[in-house]
Design a protein that fits this description.
Blueprint: H1 3-6, H2 13-24, H3 31-38, H4 42-54, H5 72-80, H6 83-93, H7 103-107
Amino acid sequence: MNDDISRELIVPQQEFNILKTLKDSASPVRIDDVASKLGTDVNSLMRSIAELENLGLVRVNKTVKRILELTEEGKKYLENGLPEVRLARVLINCGCKLPLMMYPILQGDMAFC
């Protein structure tokens, strides 16, 4: 019995389309690019990709993407300033002498430059 024939698989159309897309690419492809080429979303591909990976037909290289986003609290601090800077502003407006430890705080605040 031929080993190639014994390893023949029947896969659903979506999995077959994923395999064709990967074959047509010269280098590894991002999952969202595959989804775009197939006219679908990443979530609907994930199950098919997992199945292909389990069958040993594809390899998924997982990387973590770190994305920074400003929170509402961060936006508030940008608008109003950090508490230490606001305190320094109050002290300066009152004509009070600032403690030496507050000067490094003010160096980073553009409002005092």
